[in-house]
Amino acid sequence: MIEIHYSDQDLWRHKYDVLVPTMGALHAGHESLIKIAKLNGKKVLVSIFVNPLQFESKEDLGNYPKSLERDIKTAENAGADGVFTPSESVVYPGVVSEVLAGEIGDLYEGKSRPKHFNGVLTVVKRLFELTSPNSAIFGEKDYQQLFLIRKMVKELNLPVNIISAPTVRDANGLALSSRNIFLDDNQKKSAQVIYRALQKSTIDEMNKILSTEPNFKLDYLEIIDADTFLKADKTTQNKRAIIAGWINQVRLIDNMAVRAQS
Ligand code: AMP
User: Fold this and answer.
1) 92 C-alpha vs ligand 1 centroid, how far in Å?
2) Which long-range contacts (CB under 8 A, 24 or more apart) does 6-14 make?
């Protein structure tokens, strides 16, 4: 039986090795993280906490899908040993010092979602403090998030090993996301344009593909150096294309390693 923890009180007795932080509404992307976590440690803890600090609007926070009972079953079936589902007062008791994401936190996702990454880093650091894992796993789906978490762990010397996991997609290439439930079938079809664009090796080619889909409203498209998150140039070895935009009101983000130009 999976253990359910509402506070950090008895967490230490369970000696969890790997933490899988999530905001719930679990899908196959989260399941894959749990399975990879299980390969990296004996006991896996999935946290489910919808972090108010990383939402810009109360409306977006209020609309975030919630399905705790189902999530617990999904986590258990994927091999998790425990679920940590703390209340806001457990995560943020009184004054909690905010982690600042710095300059890279103001680019791309951070430009469209001011303070978003401060909220993400603050909660991740708190979750690490509350659960003391040896390792924690994050999806490449949120590539800028993964980059900033690795940077924080390095700079603050946090004793947690960061594992990354590849993006899980549906059969048509659409990256799984808790927000996809807000897309109808036609909109999902429109959203496939993101994956088609990411197959290309230049910004121009990607833009050309994106412009064929009138329902997709582009926010940003860039090829960055995956090691610095700065704009890639001719000398960049490790290139990553990052994309964000909207279909209707639904924000979608994705990224992929860029193939060398042939
Ligand atoms: P979230 O619940 O959206 O905060 O996501 C929790 C974790 O799952 C984060 O590390 C995400 O990067 C990861 N994740 C979300 N979607 C996917 C996906 N399609 N494939 C792999 N990991 C994902």
Assistant:
1) 22
2) 6/85, 6/86, 6/87, 6/90, 7/86, 7/87, 7/90, 8/84, 8/86, 8/90, 8/130, 8/131, 11/45, 11/84, 11/130, 11/131, 11/132, 12/132, 14/43, 14/45, 14/81, 14/82
Counting from 1 in the atom list of ligand 1, the atom nearest the Cα of 24 is: 2
* pTM summary value: 0.97
pLDDT of residue 262: 54
Q: Which structural domains are found in the chain, ordered by start?
A: 3-165 (3.40.50.620), 178-253 (3.30.1300.10)
* Cβ of 117 below 6 Å from ligand 1: no
Out of 15-24, 57-66, 70-79, 214-223, which region has the weakest mean confidence (pLDDT)? 57-66
95 band by pLDDT with thresholds 50, 70 and 90: confident
119 Cα–ligand 1 center, Å: 16
